[in-house]
Write a structure and sequence with these properties.
Helix content: over 70%
Distance between the termini: 46 Å
Strand content: under 5%
Structural class: mainly alpha
Number of strands: 0
Number of helices: 3
Length: 74
Amino acid sequence: MLNALGVTIIFLIIIFIEVPGLIKKKKIKEVVVFFILVAIGYTLNLLVAFDVKITATNKIIEMLIKPIEKIWGK
């Protein structure tokens, strides 16, 4: 449980450092992408903190890219 608290605190610090600057510059699209990437990273880190076995992320990315390769060709 302490690991999850540490992960949460670190992610909150990163958010509080990065987001205000993006909002001041009115980069709303970047803020949305930032939160999506942070949510993915936070979820994966929480799973690791709770010792949940997860598939290697490169296999997940490969699984997502293969259909696009078929459409576009190599």
